[in-house]
Amino acid sequence: MKTYKIALIKGDGIGPEIIDEAVKVLDAVASCCDLEFSYEEALMGGCAYDITGDPLPQETINISLNSDAVLFGAIGGSKWDNLPREKRPESGLLRFRKELGVYANLRPANVFDELINASSLKPEVIKGVDLMVVRELIGGIYFGEPKGRDENKGWNTMVYTREEIVRIAHQAFKIAMNRSKRVCSIDKANVLDVSQLWREVVIEVSKEYPEVELTHMYVDNAAMQLIRDPRQFDVMLTGNIFGDILSDEASMLSGSIGLLPSASVGAKIGVYEPIHGSAPDIAGQGVANPIATILSASMMLRYALDEHKAADKIDAAVKRALKEGYRTKDLAQYDAKEVCSTSEMGSIIANYAAK
Ligand code: NAD
Question: How much of the chain, in percent, has pLDDT values that exceed 90?
Fold first, then answer.
Protein backbone atom coordinates (compact mmCIF):
# COMPACT_ATOMS: atom_id res chain seq x y z
CA MET A 1 0.00 0.00 0.00
CA LYS A 2 1.31 3.47 -0.88
CA THR A 3 0.85 6.27 1.63
CA TYR A 4 0.75 9.95 0.73
CA LYS A 5 0.76 13.04 2.91
CA ILE A 6 -1.71 15.65 1.72
CA ALA A 7 -1.84 19.18 3.11
CA LEU A 8 -5.44 20.39 3.22
CA ILE A 9 -6.07 24.11 3.10
CA LYS A 10 -9.82 24.60 3.32
CA GLY A 11 -9.84 28.41 3.53
CA ASP A 12 -12.94 30.60 3.67
CA GLY A 13 -16.52 30.68 2.36
CA ILE A 14 -17.39 27.45 0.54
CA GLY A 15 -13.77 26.22 0.90
CA PRO A 16 -14.43 23.81 3.81
CA GLU A 17 -17.59 22.40 2.17
CA ILE A 18 -15.95 21.55 -1.14
CA ILE A 19 -12.71 20.20 0.35
CA ASP A 20 -14.69 17.83 2.58
CA GLU A 21 -16.30 16.33 -0.54
CA ALA A 22 -12.96 15.96 -2.33
CA VAL A 23 -11.58 14.12 0.71
CA LYS A 24 -14.63 11.84 0.69
CA VAL A 25 -13.89 10.94 -2.93
CA LEU A 26 -10.14 10.51 -2.34
CA ASP A 27 -10.86 8.11 0.52
CA ALA A 28 -13.25 6.19 -1.70
CA VAL A 29 -10.62 5.61 -4.42
CA ALA A 30 -7.95 4.92 -1.82
CA SER A 31 -9.80 1.85 -0.62
CA CYS A 32 -9.99 0.31 -4.08
CA CYS A 33 -6.54 1.39 -5.41
CA ASP A 34 -4.47 0.27 -2.44
CA LEU A 35 -3.59 3.81 -1.41
CA GLU A 36 -3.65 5.60 1.90
CA PHE A 37 -3.88 9.35 2.41
CA SER A 38 -2.90 11.08 5.61
CA TYR A 39 -4.21 14.63 5.79
CA GLU A 40 -2.85 17.59 7.68
CA GLU A 41 -4.95 20.72 7.83
CA ALA A 42 -3.40 24.18 7.57
CA LEU A 43 -4.90 27.65 7.81
CA MET A 44 -4.91 30.28 5.11
CA GLY A 45 -6.93 33.35 4.21
CA GLY A 46 -9.44 35.18 6.36
CA CYS A 47 -9.79 32.28 8.81
CA ALA A 48 -6.00 32.32 9.33
CA TYR A 49 -6.02 36.08 9.85
CA ASP A 50 -8.83 35.81 12.43
CA ILE A 51 -6.88 33.25 14.47
CA THR A 52 -3.24 34.29 13.97
CA GLY A 53 -3.32 37.86 12.61
CA ASP A 54 -1.61 36.63 9.42
CA PRO A 55 -3.43 35.34 6.30
CA LEU A 56 -0.47 33.01 5.66
CA PRO A 57 1.08 31.67 8.87
CA GLN A 58 4.58 30.20 8.52
CA GLU A 59 3.21 26.88 9.81
CA THR A 60 1.05 26.59 6.70
CA ILE A 61 4.11 26.92 4.46
CA ASN A 62 5.96 24.33 6.57
CA ILE A 63 3.09 21.84 6.49
CA SER A 64 2.74 22.31 2.73
CA LEU A 65 6.44 21.86 2.00
CA ASN A 66 6.44 18.77 4.18
CA SER A 67 3.67 17.06 2.16
CA ASP A 68 3.41 15.29 -1.18
CA ALA A 69 0.83 17.76 -2.48
CA VAL A 70 -1.52 20.52 -1.37
CA LEU A 71 -5.28 20.39 -1.88
CA PHE A 72 -6.66 23.90 -1.60
CA GLY A 73 -10.24 25.22 -1.34
CA ALA A 74 -10.61 28.99 -1.67
CA ILE A 75 -10.00 32.10 0.38
CA GLY A 76 -11.46 35.58 0.78
CA GLY A 77 -14.67 37.37 1.65
CA SER A 78 -16.02 40.85 2.27
CA LYS A 79 -15.34 40.56 6.01
CA TRP A 80 -11.62 41.04 5.27
CA ASP A 81 -11.88 43.44 2.31
CA ASN A 82 -10.99 46.55 4.30
CA LEU A 83 -7.82 45.22 5.93
CA PRO A 84 -4.47 46.67 4.86
CA ARG A 85 -3.35 44.97 1.65
CA GLU A 86 -0.70 42.69 3.23
CA LYS A 87 -3.24 41.35 5.74
CA ARG A 88 -5.88 40.51 3.13
CA PRO A 89 -6.56 36.84 2.30
CA GLU A 90 -5.61 37.36 -1.37
CA SER A 91 -2.14 38.64 -0.33
CA GLY A 92 -1.67 35.42 1.63
CA LEU A 93 -2.49 33.38 -1.46
CA LEU A 94 -0.10 35.32 -3.71
CA ARG A 95 2.66 34.96 -1.12
CA PHE A 96 1.91 31.24 -0.77
CA ARG A 97 2.29 30.65 -4.52
CA LYS A 98 5.57 32.58 -4.51
CA GLU A 99 6.91 30.68 -1.45
CA LEU A 100 6.10 27.33 -3.05
CA GLY A 101 7.50 28.45 -6.40
CA VAL A 102 4.40 27.29 -8.29
CA TYR A 103 4.98 29.27 -11.46
CA ALA A 104 2.67 27.33 -13.79
CA ASN A 105 -1.09 27.17 -13.43
CA LEU A 106 -2.72 24.50 -15.59
CA ARG A 107 -6.40 25.04 -16.21
CA PRO A 108 -8.17 22.51 -18.39
CA ALA A 109 -11.55 23.48 -19.83
CA ASN A 110 -13.62 20.65 -21.23
CA VAL A 111 -17.22 20.51 -22.19
CA PHE A 112 -19.01 17.45 -20.83
CA ASP A 113 -21.44 16.12 -23.45
CA GLU A 114 -23.93 15.65 -20.61
CA LEU A 115 -23.87 19.43 -19.93
CA ILE A 116 -23.87 20.63 -23.51
CA ASN A 117 -27.03 22.66 -22.81
CA ALA A 118 -25.65 24.18 -19.61
CA SER A 119 -23.43 26.66 -21.42
CA SER A 120 -24.76 29.98 -22.58
CA LEU A 121 -23.14 29.21 -25.95
CA LYS A 122 -24.71 27.12 -28.71
CA PRO A 123 -24.06 23.35 -28.53
CA GLU A 124 -22.60 23.30 -32.05
CA VAL A 125 -19.95 25.86 -30.98
CA ILE A 126 -18.82 24.09 -27.83
CA LYS A 127 -19.29 20.38 -28.47
CA GLY A 128 -15.95 18.64 -28.00
CA VAL A 129 -14.09 21.63 -26.54
CA ASP A 130 -10.95 20.38 -24.80
CA LEU A 131 -8.38 23.05 -24.12
CA MET A 132 -5.74 23.80 -21.51
CA VAL A 133 -4.82 27.28 -20.34
CA VAL A 134 -1.20 27.35 -19.14
CA ARG A 135 -0.98 30.52 -17.09
CA GLU A 136 2.19 32.02 -15.60
CA LEU A 137 1.39 32.42 -11.91
CA ILE A 138 4.08 34.18 -9.91
CA GLY A 139 5.20 37.00 -12.18
CA GLY A 140 3.65 39.76 -14.26
CA ILE A 141 1.53 42.65 -13.08
CA TYR A 142 0.30 41.01 -9.85
CA PHE A 143 3.87 40.97 -8.52
CA GLY A 144 5.78 43.67 -10.48
CA GLU A 145 7.44 46.61 -8.78
CA PRO A 146 6.93 49.49 -8.41
CA LYS A 147 3.35 49.35 -7.29
CA GLY A 148 1.38 51.65 -5.04
CA ARG A 149 -1.19 54.36 -4.78
CA ASP A 150 -1.81 57.75 -3.33
CA GLU A 151 -5.00 59.72 -3.23
CA ASN A 152 -4.98 60.59 -6.91
CA LYS A 153 -2.96 57.88 -8.58
CA GLY A 154 -2.59 54.08 -8.50
CA TRP A 155 0.10 52.10 -10.33
CA ASN A 156 1.25 48.55 -10.99
CA THR A 157 4.02 47.27 -13.23
CA MET A 158 3.96 44.38 -15.66
CA VAL A 159 7.39 42.78 -15.69
CA TYR A 160 8.58 39.47 -17.12
CA THR A 161 12.16 38.28 -17.18
CA ARG A 162 13.53 36.02 -19.90
CA GLU A 163 13.97 33.24 -17.34
CA GLU A 164 10.32 33.43 -16.22
CA ILE A 165 9.09 33.24 -19.81
CA VAL A 166 11.42 30.36 -20.69
CA ARG A 167 10.20 28.10 -17.87
CA ILE A 168 6.48 28.68 -18.44
CA ALA A 169 6.92 28.24 -22.21
CA HIS A 170 8.63 24.86 -21.63
CA GLN A 171 5.64 23.78 -19.50
CA ALA A 172 3.22 24.71 -22.28
CA PHE A 173 5.19 22.92 -25.00
CA LYS A 174 5.66 19.80 -22.87
CA ILE A 175 1.92 19.65 -22.17
CA ALA A 176 1.16 20.20 -25.85
CA MET A 177 3.38 17.23 -26.74
CA ASN A 178 0.91 15.01 -24.84
CA ARG A 179 -2.11 16.64 -26.44
CA SER A 180 -2.78 17.87 -29.98
CA LYS A 181 0.65 19.51 -30.33
CA ARG A 182 -0.62 23.06 -30.76
CA VAL A 183 0.33 26.07 -28.63
CA CYS A 184 -1.27 29.48 -29.03
CA SER A 185 0.69 32.12 -27.12
CA ILE A 186 -1.43 35.05 -25.96
CA ASP A 187 0.08 38.51 -25.56
CA LYS A 188 -0.39 42.18 -26.33
CA ALA A 189 2.80 42.59 -28.34
CA ASN A 190 1.29 45.34 -30.49
CA VAL A 191 1.26 47.65 -27.46
CA LEU A 192 3.34 46.28 -24.57
CA ASP A 193 7.15 46.00 -24.48
CA VAL A 194 6.85 43.16 -21.97
CA SER A 195 4.74 41.25 -24.50
CA GLN A 196 7.31 41.80 -27.26
CA LEU A 197 9.92 40.07 -25.09
CA TRP A 198 7.34 37.37 -24.24
CA ARG A 199 6.74 36.65 -27.93
CA GLU A 200 10.46 36.64 -28.80
CA VAL A 201 11.33 34.19 -26.01
CA VAL A 202 8.38 31.88 -26.74
CA ILE A 203 9.55 31.63 -30.36
CA GLU A 204 13.08 30.75 -29.15
CA VAL A 205 11.79 28.02 -26.83
CA SER A 206 9.51 26.63 -29.56
CA LYS A 207 12.60 25.64 -31.58
CA GLU A 208 13.18 22.84 -29.04
CA TYR A 209 9.73 21.43 -29.87
CA PRO A 210 9.66 21.21 -33.68
CA GLU A 211 6.60 18.92 -33.63
CA VAL A 212 4.49 21.57 -31.91
CA GLU A 213 2.76 24.19 -34.02
CA LEU A 214 3.10 27.65 -32.42
CA THR A 215 0.74 30.52 -33.16
CA HIS A 216 0.35 33.93 -31.49
CA MET A 217 -2.77 35.91 -30.69
CA TYR A 218 -3.41 39.29 -29.09
CA VAL A 219 -5.31 38.94 -25.85
CA ASP A 220 -8.30 41.00 -26.98
CA ASN A 221 -8.73 38.81 -30.05
CA ALA A 222 -8.25 35.67 -27.90
CA ALA A 223 -11.11 36.78 -25.63
CA MET A 224 -13.31 37.05 -28.71
CA GLN A 225 -12.11 33.82 -30.37
CA LEU A 226 -12.76 31.81 -27.20
CA ILE A 227 -16.44 32.60 -27.57
CA ARG A 228 -16.57 32.53 -31.40
CA ASP A 229 -14.76 29.22 -31.98
CA PRO A 230 -13.23 27.68 -28.84
CA ARG A 231 -12.37 24.40 -30.57
CA GLN A 232 -9.53 26.11 -32.45
CA PHE A 233 -7.49 26.07 -29.21
CA ASP A 234 -5.44 23.25 -27.70
CA VAL A 235 -2.88 24.79 -25.29
CA MET A 236 -3.23 28.53 -24.59
CA LEU A 237 0.01 29.92 -23.12
CA THR A 238 -0.50 33.17 -21.21
CA GLY A 239 0.95 35.52 -18.63
CA ASN A 240 -0.61 35.98 -15.22
CA ILE A 241 -3.36 38.58 -15.66
CA PHE A 242 -4.35 37.55 -19.19
CA GLY A 243 -4.59 33.92 -18.05
CA ASP A 244 -6.63 34.86 -15.01
CA ILE A 245 -9.25 36.54 -17.16
CA LEU A 246 -9.23 34.12 -20.10
CA SER A 247 -9.53 31.02 -17.92
CA ASP A 248 -12.59 32.41 -16.15
CA GLU A 249 -14.03 33.13 -19.59
CA ALA A 250 -13.16 29.58 -20.69
CA SER A 251 -14.96 28.23 -17.63
CA MET A 252 -18.25 29.44 -19.00
CA LEU A 253 -17.84 27.20 -22.04
CA SER A 254 -18.45 24.30 -19.68
CA GLY A 255 -21.51 25.83 -18.02
CA SER A 256 -20.37 26.61 -14.48
CA ILE A 257 -17.27 27.88 -12.79
CA GLY A 258 -17.98 25.16 -10.22
CA LEU A 259 -16.78 22.49 -12.68
CA LEU A 260 -13.22 23.55 -13.42
CA PRO A 261 -10.12 22.31 -11.62
CA SER A 262 -6.56 23.56 -11.74
CA ALA A 263 -3.05 22.53 -10.88
CA SER A 264 -0.32 24.96 -9.88
CA VAL A 265 3.08 23.38 -10.31
CA GLY A 266 6.71 24.39 -10.17
CA ALA A 267 9.97 23.32 -8.69
CA LYS A 268 8.63 22.11 -5.34
CA ILE A 269 5.18 21.03 -4.14
CA GLY A 270 2.11 21.35 -6.38
CA VAL A 271 -1.12 23.05 -5.31
CA TYR A 272 -4.41 21.64 -6.61
CA GLU A 273 -7.44 23.91 -6.43
CA PRO A 274 -10.71 24.84 -8.15
CA ILE A 275 -10.48 27.93 -10.33
CA HIS A 276 -13.33 29.65 -8.52
CA GLY A 277 -13.19 31.72 -5.35
CA SER A 278 -14.80 31.33 -1.94
CA ALA A 279 -18.30 32.22 -3.24
CA PRO A 280 -19.43 34.00 -0.05
CA ASP A 281 -22.89 34.50 -1.59
CA ILE A 282 -23.63 30.77 -1.29
CA ALA A 283 -21.34 29.74 1.60
CA GLY A 284 -22.92 27.58 4.29
CA GLN A 285 -26.02 26.79 2.22
CA GLY A 286 -24.89 23.36 1.01
CA VAL A 287 -25.42 24.32 -2.63
CA ALA A 288 -21.84 24.77 -3.89
CA ASN A 289 -20.76 22.51 -6.72
CA PRO A 290 -17.89 20.34 -5.42
CA ILE A 291 -16.93 18.96 -8.86
CA ALA A 292 -14.14 21.51 -9.56
CA THR A 293 -12.47 20.51 -6.29
CA ILE A 294 -13.04 16.80 -6.83
CA LEU A 295 -11.47 17.10 -10.30
CA SER A 296 -8.58 19.07 -8.72
CA ALA A 297 -8.02 16.07 -6.45
CA SER A 298 -7.93 13.93 -9.58
CA MET A 299 -5.32 16.26 -11.13
CA MET A 300 -3.34 15.91 -7.88
CA LEU A 301 -3.36 12.12 -8.22
CA ARG A 302 -2.30 12.34 -11.86
CA TYR A 303 0.32 15.11 -11.81
CA ALA A 304 1.76 15.00 -8.28
CA LEU A 305 1.42 11.36 -7.27
CA ASP A 306 1.46 9.56 -10.63
CA GLU A 307 -1.63 7.58 -9.57
CA HIS A 308 -3.35 7.50 -12.94
CA LYS A 309 -5.71 4.62 -12.21
CA ALA A 310 -7.19 6.42 -9.21
CA ALA A 311 -7.43 9.68 -11.19
CA ASP A 312 -9.22 7.89 -14.05
CA LYS A 313 -11.69 6.45 -11.56
CA ILE A 314 -12.55 9.91 -10.24
CA ASP A 315 -12.92 11.38 -13.72
CA ALA A 316 -15.19 8.51 -14.74
CA ALA A 317 -17.25 8.85 -11.55
CA VAL A 318 -17.84 12.56 -12.22
CA LYS A 319 -18.93 11.83 -15.79
CA ARG A 320 -21.25 9.08 -14.59
CA ALA A 321 -22.90 11.30 -11.98
CA LEU A 322 -23.54 13.95 -14.63
CA LYS A 323 -24.73 11.39 -17.16
CA GLU A 324 -27.21 10.00 -14.64
CA GLY A 325 -28.65 13.50 -14.32
CA TYR A 326 -27.38 14.57 -10.90
CA ARG A 327 -26.88 18.35 -10.73
CA THR A 328 -26.02 20.88 -8.05
CA LYS A 329 -28.04 24.08 -8.01
CA ASP A 330 -25.70 26.02 -10.35
CA LEU A 331 -26.55 23.53 -13.13
CA ALA A 332 -30.01 22.52 -12.04
CA GLN A 333 -31.98 24.57 -14.51
CA TYR A 334 -30.61 22.35 -17.28
CA ASP A 335 -32.11 18.86 -17.56
CA ALA A 336 -31.56 17.84 -13.93
CA LYS A 337 -32.94 14.47 -12.96
CA GLU A 338 -32.18 15.24 -9.36
CA VAL A 339 -30.95 18.43 -7.67
CA CYS A 340 -28.26 17.54 -5.12
CA SER A 341 -26.69 19.32 -2.23
CA THR A 342 -22.89 19.71 -2.10
CA SER A 343 -22.57 16.72 0.16
CA GLU A 344 -25.01 14.54 -1.79
CA MET A 345 -23.05 15.18 -4.98
CA GLY A 346 -19.80 14.28 -3.17
CA SER A 347 -21.32 11.04 -1.88
CA ILE A 348 -22.68 10.02 -5.30
CA ILE A 349 -19.28 10.58 -6.93
CA ALA A 350 -17.46 8.81 -4.07
CA ASN A 351 -19.80 5.86 -4.40
CA TYR A 352 -19.17 5.55 -8.18
CA ALA A 353 -15.41 6.09 -7.74
CA ALA A 354 -15.17 3.25 -5.22
CA LYS A 355 -16.49 0.68 -7.73
P1 NAD B 1 -16.21 33.45 -6.92
O2 NAD B 1 -15.54 32.52 -7.89
O3 NAD B 1 -16.05 33.13 -5.48
O4 NAD B 1 -17.78 33.50 -7.26
C5 NAD B 1 -18.27 33.96 -8.51
C6 NAD B 1 -19.70 33.42 -8.72
O7 NAD B 1 -19.61 32.02 -8.99
C8 NAD B 1 -20.58 33.56 -7.48
O9 NAD B 1 -21.89 33.82 -7.90
C10 NAD B 1 -20.52 32.19 -6.83
O11 NAD B 1 -21.68 31.84 -6.09
C12 NAD B 1 -20.35 31.26 -8.04
N13 NAD B 1 -19.57 30.07 -7.70
C14 NAD B 1 -18.24 30.02 -7.44
N15 NAD B 1 -17.87 28.78 -7.13
C16 NAD B 1 -18.99 28.03 -7.19
C17 NAD B 1 -19.26 26.65 -6.96
N18 NAD B 1 -18.31 25.77 -6.62
N19 NAD B 1 -20.54 26.21 -7.11
C20 NAD B 1 -21.51 27.04 -7.47
N21 NAD B 1 -21.31 28.36 -7.71
C22 NAD B 1 -20.06 28.86 -7.56
O23 NAD B 1 -15.65 34.88 -7.26
P24 NAD B 1 -15.93 36.30 -6.53
O25 NAD B 1 -17.35 36.37 -6.09
O26 NAD B 1 -15.40 37.31 -7.46
O27 NAD B 1 -14.98 36.29 -5.25
C28 NAD B 1 -15.40 35.90 -3.94
C29 NAD B 1 -14.17 35.88 -3.04
O30 NAD B 1 -13.28 34.85 -3.47
C31 NAD B 1 -13.37 37.18 -3.06
O32 NAD B 1 -12.93 37.45 -1.76
C33 NAD B 1 -12.19 36.85 -3.97
O34 NAD B 1 -11.03 37.62 -3.69
C35 NAD B 1 -11.96 35.40 -3.63
N36 NAD B 1 -11.28 34.61 -4.67
C37 NAD B 1 -10.46 33.63 -4.22
C38 NAD B 1 -9.84 32.81 -5.13
C39 NAD B 1 -8.99 31.68 -4.60
O40 NAD B 1 -9.06 31.38 -3.41
N41 NAD B 1 -8.19 31.03 -5.43
C42 NAD B 1 -10.07 32.97 -6.50
C43 NAD B 1 -10.95 33.96 -6.93
C44 NAD B 1 -11.56 34.78 -5.99
Answer: 88
